[in-house]
Design a protein that fits this description.
The protein has 517 residues and is mainly α. Helix content is 77%, strand content 2%. The chain has 12 helices and 4 strands. The chain has a two-stranded antiparallel ribbon with strand order 1-2. It has a two-stranded parallel sheet with strand order 3-4. A hairpin with a 5-residue loop joins β1 (53-55) and β2. α1 runs antiparallel to α9 and α6 packs antiparallel against α7.
Amino acid sequence: MEFPHRTKLVLSLFSILTLSAFNFTHVSGLSGRQLLQAENTSEPIRHSDDTVRVDPLDHFNKYKGGFDITNKHYWSSTIFTGIPGYAIGVVWLLCGIGYGGFLVVTTFWCKSGNRKLKKKKRFSCYKHCYLWHILLASFFTILAIVASGLVLGGNVKFHSRASTVVDIVIETANNASGTIYNTTGAMRNIRENLETVVVGFQASNLLTSTSDQLDDEAADIETEARKNRRLIDKGLNIVYIITTVIVSLNLVAVIALSVSGFLKFRRAVHWLIVFCWFLTILCWFSFGIYFFLENFAGDTCTALEDFQQDPYNSSLSSILPCDELLSAKPVLSNVSAGIYDLVNEVNSNITSLQQTMSLNLVYVCNPFSAPPEYKYLQGNCPENTIPIGEIPKALKVFISTSNFKTVEAYTTSIQNLLNAYPGMEDLVECQTVKDAFSEILIKHCEPLKRYVRMVWVAMVFLSVIMVVLVLVWTTKARHERSYHSSDGSVKHHIAAANMLDSGMAKASNGNTDHTLV
């Protein structure tokens, strides 16, 4: 066994590991970092028509840059898809401001005489209108409670499904980091084995620097994974908590408004109407946000589908550099071919020894298939063969102690590299990422889009109900105010008349007594 030949195989394999580690540093940011559009001169990247949207930051021109979360124009065009909710919320806010101004004007500047005239005309229908108000308020209060339950239920399911997707993505990054750590562990074992022989010092130094470098890259992956996990979890939790708080407060306010209205707590009703009006604005804005989130989820799933079809030419190529890792595949094939040829050479020498010395020696299991595939055959060794790692045991009785150490160092090194080979192969072929994305597409994409759609539809339902409910209670409060003002005016007029009549009667009685005297 010649040292230069072994060293060449080891160095080739290390070059693959280094390239894989440098590129997979980007995988940890897969949920919150670059999703740039990769350039390919041979074939343009496929874009979904759904990403062509109006961009308010570009003078309302169409955005055609594809799925790219680092592009502010992608975000502005996608967030702008929630404009129906934002616009209705703004209109409802302006209506509230306008109605508030109207109340101020009618309270302080209108003439009381004109108000009395109108109020006397409304007095006759008070009881009839009151009954209709109560029936409508009760009906829409029940609908608001049902809609709130739908929003809260959908919000919980959406948050749970989104968290599961994030867990899969982060686990993929951690697996990439773990693969690198496993490889560097094997490299340290190789270094320790080579240090036992004089010819191994040069390779040992190379192993030390390379394993340290790979450990740094694995540590970067873990750091980026933790950082992005915190950011994504924070964003999901903010959306979940805000939605839950808005809907819960709205539910409490609606019930309190109904109770106060039925018990005729006029001042409490007025304040609760204002509060419910404000919550209705937030509900419309929430509808716009969840409508935008559905579009974003659809874009993400479409990008994952494109990646599954062609991982080397998709909108995710910048964060998942499978095209760059693909360039390392020929090097990995050369290593496979080198080990394959080496094992065949050893088996050929065993055949020669059996013929010349009549020794009954077992053959070495070749871990790779015949060319040109050189497919790794893990655990598929014939019964009359032994793995490379067991060669020292078979030769122990035939060679000297010094040669045994040399053979053991080289065979153990190659076996350790073979143990790490499946992980390295997955890194080069992006198989780990493809498997993770396949799980997301099959199990989570459709439920995620379904639950976010459920939330925004329920939020529209709740918002419309709140608009009607607020208008019903506003009308009732206005009617109550008119009735009590009219009633107070009539009572005041009757009291004044009674006092006048009483005074006149007393004056008349006084005059009569004076005449009699």
